[in-house]
Amino acid sequence: MLSSEILKDLIAFPTVSRSSNLELLAYVERLLAPCGAATKRVTTERDRANLWITIGPADAPGVVLSGHSDVVPVSGQPWSCDPFTLIEKDGLLYGRGTADMKGFLACALACAVKAGERRLAAPLHLAISYDEEIGCVGVRSLLDDLRDLRFPPALCWIGEPTSMRLATGHKGKVALRAHCTGRAAHSAFPTSGLNAIHLATDFISSLRELQIDMADRIHQDPDYDIPYSTVHVGLIAGGEALNIVPSRCTIDFEVRNIAEDNIDACIDDIRDRAAAIVRPLRTWYPEADVMLEVVNAYPGLNTRHEAALRFMSSLTGSNDVTTKLAFGTEGGLFSERLGIPTVICGPGSMDQGHKADEYVAKEQLEQCDAMLGRLLERLERGAIF
Questions:
Q1: What is the Cα–Cα distance from 303 to 298, expressed in whole angstroms?
Q2: Engineering a disulfide at 249: which of 5, 114, 180, 293 sits with its beta carbon 3.0 to 4.6 angstroms away?
Q3: Residue 13, by phi and psi: left (phi above 0), alpha (psi -120 to 50) or beta?
Q4: pLDDT of residue 191
């Protein structure tokens, strides 16, 4: 079965994050049942699950192809076609998730179908996760389950879109919320209260100062487009009415860190900056506070496993210099929690992801299919590294 045919089926499932992906998983199970695939669902949710698939011997280390089933929403985007119907035009395949990342899933499933027709000496695994787009949430329960594997994979291949370039890393990310507490008062007497929105703006100023500091640090990673850690404020909410000095305000922000920057030390630095803002205010307003809450986090990836990189380079058929990605993946979790060498390589580009009229070039799918075909040849020989 062609990967483009499978992609047509996958796109038809509107698996937006936090919505069910069980129908998509049932489709995969039906597709691979004739291939002798062993499948297992792992989840902590009622209507969403991860799917672990194995084709080939269970008593040897193999390779896992990992990808997420969820896609970002389409609401408010000016699509020129139905986002959940695959459309081909001028060699491009349009639909939500074609690039990020059902294109790779389609190639991986086509590879699995072919694997069922061969006698593998080392197994092919597929990991299909949920709710990746909201912080690599779903895959964590799967990784907990995989700790019990007697023969863990020798390599994890994440299929996020890289235009089929081999990527060895991405930044880590921590999402935080700052809860700013002031004192309410009538706006006609603003000095009798403490404006929580003003506290929030002071805190945001301190984050901007932190960003300047990060950009000037000695330790940077030139493999990234932005070679240093970044701070970004995305949401602010506070106040009840114009004539009330607000006592509450929240700020949602994130830090994306390079491997050289310790994220725990960075969070401690931010807490110190928050404490410095409220300390002089507490003489008059004891309740003054800027409290930090860690909402979500995932680790970065920085793969230096030479044998794994040589193996993947042999599959790409190219000696191109590797790259690192500005966006995150579940790769850091595979590496940190299971100790599996992890790389990223997939069809399409994130330049097309998360937008109206998202697409992947058919040529990219064919390139991925060819690369996975070379992987099967190696698994038949049991020659990984």
A1: 16
A2: 180
A3: beta
A4: 94
287 is catalytic: no
- Does residue 94 contact residue 33 with C-beta atoms inside 8 Å? no
Contacts of 149 (CB under 8 A, 6+ apart): none
Radius of gyration of the chain (CA): 24
The CATH number linked to 79 is: 3.40.630.10
Q: Which of 5, 45, 47, 70 is catalytic?
A: 70
Predicted confidence (pLDDT) per residue in 317-335, tens digit: 876 678 999 899 999 999 9
Active site residue 216: no
Which is the catalytic residue, given 132, 133, 221, 289?
132
pTM (predicted TM-score): 0.93
Of 263, 298, 333, the residue at which a domain comes to its end is: 298
Question: What tens digit of pLDDT does each residue of 74-118 get?
Answer: 999 999 999 999 999 999 999 999 999 999 999 999 999 999 999
Number of domains making up the chain: 2
Q: Do 216 and 129 reside in the same domain of the chain?
A: no
Q: Are residues 286 and 315 in the same domain?
A: no
- Specify whether 141 is located in the same domain as 232: no
Rounded alpha-carbon distances, angstroms, from residue 97 to 174, 198, 371: 25, 41, 21
**CATH number of the domain that 227 lies in?**
3.30.70.360
Q: Which domain holds residue 239?
A: 172-298
CA torsion angle for 361, 71, 15, 47 (degrees, to 10)?
140
